[in-house]
Structure formats: structure tokens, C-alpha cells
Design a protein that fits this description.
383 residues, alpha/beta, Nucleotidyltransferase, domain 5, Helix Hairpins, Serum Albumin, Chain A, Domain 1, five-stranded mixed β-sheet, 58% helix, disordered C terminus
Length: 383
């Protein structure tokens, strides 16, 4: 028989077993919440207070890696399999384990719901909803107001400015004056008081959506700078947040290969290519980065590939080392872009019978990036 003490933890307590018998024990409180809290600590790799008490000053053997500081780690030792401890004999029924398991699930769900990684996904989805709704209202407002003044619709391209001018003036006369257009030469029907009130109400609803979008942008910026500062500084918090929403966590993003990061956001195009053939996508959300979408079409894929490799390094720094490497990575991206432009200044010759290159032009109208200029509607920030 061995003279060692074997430290064993079950769902209802911690025990020291010697020669197959319980030499000492620390039972957990007989209530689901207390048991669930201890099970949660165990799942996180922590050492329980009961385990420390039992191991203190003794020569112990443990079977779990998390307990290796308390004794000799020997998971294959047969004495652990021989240790039989009956929960019911100690007053712990199986229905208590069931209740504790439910409580543990609630604890883990509550905790995961407060993780910034998960919250940023909800913020991004909320902003997508706001953008889509606002674009629909903007289209309706332009069509409606165009009945009374096509000159105003054509003269103000910015959606938010358009809505604010209508909310301020209502009827076209004041706006036409600001645009320097002679009202006597203007086209369109006469706007009645009831119509004026209706379009003003619609314009104010649209303004509220724009303000909600700005608030969400600020929230996303602040949150991303906390959880993924390197990626956010390198590529912009908006693009980084969209990538993170797909990856789930910063750690998941850091473990992705560069080729996957390059195509995040292009999943539909990728599946369509795999199913139907044709040309594979070369970039996903990374296309919203200004240096990608403003480059000639034959350079975009190369720039996206190079940037994705750099973003892997930024993600690993955010997830693991917590070092500020953004300036170094940004400089490497700038150098890489210049090298690509130097090596590939001209479009490659098309192979006979091959289709032309994909222009990759972004959609026009609606929301535009507050830093990225004329990027896609959904890419509100690019560098």
C-alpha cells in the first residue's frame, strides 16, 4: 500500500484518501449555488480553498493539472480509480447535483453575456440594422421630396445634410435659396402644409437614426480600443469590430490563418464560388480599408493578402502579449503597399478568352465611412 495521501475532489467536496479510505475531507455547502460556484472555479482551472486546506503540510498526489502546485501530479495512478466516495452517504442527493448544474449554466451564461467580445458583436449588428433602416428612409425621403423639388434632391448628396435641411426648412424655397437656385425656374409641384409636416416628420426620424449611428460608432470605437487596440489602430475600429463579430473572440481571431482573415466578411461569395465555380473572392471586410479599395484592381488582392498577414500579428498581440505593436505593423503595411505598387504598376495582360478583372466598386449613396470616404455602405470606418 502507498503511504501517500491522494487529493480527490468530487462535485460535493474535497477528500484526502489514504489506502483506499477517506482520511480527511472538506464537504461543500449543501446548496446548489455554493456548489455551482465551486464547479465554476474548477472549470476555470482554479484551486479551491478546501483543496488548499487539505493539502497543507501533507505529502499529496493529485490527478488534475490545476492542482499540480499542491502535490505530485500523477493522473495515471491506480489509487485514484480505487477511491470510491458515495455522495448519498454524505447527504448529497443527485437532485442537488441537477440543481447545481442548472445554476452553473446560469452563472456561465451571465458571465459570457458581459464579455466585451460578445457585446461588440451586438453593437455591430445593431448598427447594421440602423444603417439599413436609415438607407430605406433616405431613399423614400428623396423620392418623396423629389416630387416638390428635384433640384434640392440633386443638389444635396449627403444624406444627413439632406435630412437636416428638410427638417429645418420644410418647403423647398429656403433650401433653394441656400443652394443659389432661382425658385422661379425650379420644377416640382406645390407643397401643401400637410405634406410639409409629413416630410419634416420623416426627416426628423432619419436624423434620429443618424444620431443613433454616431453613438454606436463611438461606443464601438471605445470598446474596440479596450479589447483589441492594435487591430483597431492598424485597420480602424469599424473593420476590426466586424472581423471580431465573425471570429467571436480576440483569441479566436488571433488563431486564424491569414488567408481566413483576408476573407472574413466574404463568406457568401466564397460559398457561391465553391458551389458554382467562377472567380474566388480575394477580400472581405478588409476591402473597406482605404488603401485596398482605392488601389487598381490588380493590386487589391495582393494588398489584402499582405495586410491579413500583418493583422495576424496584431491580433496575437491583443490576445496574448498585450504589447502595443500598432505603429510597427502600420509602418510595415505602408511599406508593403508601396512595394506592391512598385512591383505591379500596370495591369497584367488578359489571357485570351478570360473575363476582365473585377472592378470591386463600392455601392454608392446612403451612409459612407466617417473616415473612409466612399467605401461601402456598411464600412463606416477605414484608415
Amino acid at each position: 500500500m502507498s503511504n501517500d495521501s491522494y487529493l480527490v475532489t468530487r462535485w460535493f467536496g474535497s477528500f484526502l484518501v489514504e489506502n483506499g479510505r477517506i482520511a480527511d475531507k472538506r464537504l461543500f455547502p449543501n446548496n446548489p449555488k455554493a456548489i455551482a460556484e465551486r464547479l465554476k472555479l474548477i472549470s476555470e482551472g482554479s484551486v479551491l480553498g478546501e483543496e488548499r486546506e487539505l493539502a497543507g503540510g501533507r505529502k499529496t498526489v493529485v490527478s488534475e493539472k490545476r492542482l499540480s502546485l499542491l502535490g505530485r501530479y500523477a493522473p495515471e495512478d491506480d489509487n485514484f480509480r480505487l477511491a470510491e466516495i458515495d455522495a448519498s452517504a454524505l447527504g448529497f442527493e443527485m437532485k442537488l447535483l441537477h440543481a447545481a448544474s442548472l445554476e452553473l449554466g446560469r452563472l456561465q451564461t451571465r458571465e459570457s453575456s458581459t464579455e466585451p467580445d460578445r457585446q461588440i458583436s451586438q453593437a455591430i449588428n445593431a448598427m447594421e440594422d440602423v444603417i439599413n433602416t436609415a438607407n430605406l428612409l433616405l431613399e423614400r425621403l428623396r423620392e418623396w421630396y423629389g416630387l416638390y423639388s428635384p433640384e434640392v434632391v440633386e443638389g444635396i448628396s449627403d444624406g444627413e445634410q439632406f435630412a437636416r435641411k428638410i427638417a429645418e426648412h420644410g418647403k423647398p424655397s429656403g433650401i433653394l435659396k441656400e443652394l443659389g437656385i432661382d425658385e422661379s425656374t425650379a420644377l416640382g409641384a406645390e407643397m401643401g402644409d400637410a405634406d410639409e409636416a409629413a416630410v419634416r416628420q420623416l426627416a426628423n426620424s432619419l436624423i434620429n437614426l443618424y444620431e443613433s449611428k454616431h453613438d454606436l460608432e463611438l461606443h464601438i470605437d471605445e470598446t474596440m480600443m479596450q479589447i483589441a487596440p492594435n487591430i483597431s489602430k492598424v485597420i480602424g475600429s469599424g473593420i476590426a469590430a466586424r472581423m471580431l463579430a465573425i471570429a467571436g473572440t480576440v483569441e479566436n481571431l488571433a488563431m486564424m490563418p491569414a488567408s481566413t482573415i483576408q476573407l472574413l466578411g466574404a463568406e457568401k461569395a466564397l460559398f457561391r464560388y465553391l458551389k458554382e465555380g467562377g472567380k474566388p473572392p480575394k477580400h472581405g471586410y478588409i476591402y473597406q480599408y482605404r488603401a485596398v479599395n482605392t488601389s487598381p484592381w490588380w493590386q487589391r488582392g495582393k494588398i489584402a493578402r499582405m495586410m491579413a498577414a500583418k493583422l495576424v500579428t496584431a491580433a496575437k498581440a491583443d490576445a496574448f502579449t498585450k504589447r502595443d505593436v500598432a505603429a510597427e505593423i502600420a509602418a510595415g503595411i505602408d511599406n508593403g503597399i508601396q512595394e506592391i505598387k512598385r512591383k505591379y504598376p500596370s495591369a497584367p495582360e488578359k489571357k485570351k478568352g478570360a473575363p476582365g478583372g473585377f472592378s470591386g466598386r463600392p455601392q454608392q449613396g446612403g451612409f459612407k465611412g466617417h473616415r473612409g470616404g466612399g467605401g461601402p455602405v456598411h464600412g463606416y470606418r477605414s484608415r
